[in-house]
Amino acid sequence: MISLHTPITDKDITALRVGEKVSISGTIYTARDQAHIRLIEEKNPKFLLDGSVIFYVGPTPNRDGIPIGASGPTSSYRMDKLAVPLMERGLKLMIGKGDRSKEFQIEMIKNKAVYLIATGGAGALLSSRIKSSKIIMYDDLKSEAIRELEVEDFPCFVAYDIYGGSIFERENNNG
């Protein structure tokens, strides 16, 4: 298992290979479709995109004493075109679920970014790795607002690396 601490560096990215298990600790951000659209136009976002990690999630409401509700990944293909301008501004890791377009993969390699997948249907488990959560941008988007999360040993797998590897192609070729 590879342990990563945010912010993510180019050295971190070059070490990652398809299929490897990754554990992330530090600050990550949530963003889905509408937040991406706004963030692309944002001149001064409330967080530094360079070296950042975005988790595609719309968490459920939290219960008393728990920083966030269930936090399972959402399908990522909807963010393919929206992620490109953010990668150009330094976004390094994206966490979601599911396959992405060939066009996205090309842009990801060009921008030295990596796509990770988290286990879908395990939102309660993933939320146990989130130590704090606060909305920092676009609170009108409710569950799709941008949140700053502090995570500890957040589990993922490398789905696409900067060398053109794809866990989805590997899966298709093995069975």
How would you portray this structure in words?
The mean pLDDT is 93. The chain is built from six helices and seven strands. Helix 3 (80-88) links the parallel strand 3 (53-55) and strand 4 (93-96). The chain has one domain: Fe-S hydro-lyase, tartrate dehydratase beta-type, catalytic domain (fumarase, Alpha-Beta Barrel), CATH 3.20.130.10. The protein has a five-stranded mixed barrel with strand order 2-3-4-5-7. It is an alpha/beta fold. Helix content is 26%, strand content 27%.
- Full CATH superfamily name: Fe-S hydro-lyase, tartrate dehydratase beta-type, catalytic domain
Mean pLDDT: 93
From N to C, what is the helix and strand string? EHEHEHEHEHEEH
Number of strands: 7
Task: Give the spatial strand order of the biggest sheet.
Answer: 2-3-4-5-7
Structure, briefly:
This protein has 175 residues and is α/β, with parallel strands linked by helices.
Fold topology:
Layout: E1 2-5, H1 10-15, E2 21-30, H2 33-41, E3 53-55, H3 80-88, E4 93-96, H4 102-110, E5 114-117, H5 123-127, E6 130-137, E7 146-160, H6 167-173
Helix pairs in contact: 2-3, 3-4
Q: What structural keywords apply?
A:
26% helix, alpha/beta, fumarase, 27% strand, globular, 175 residues
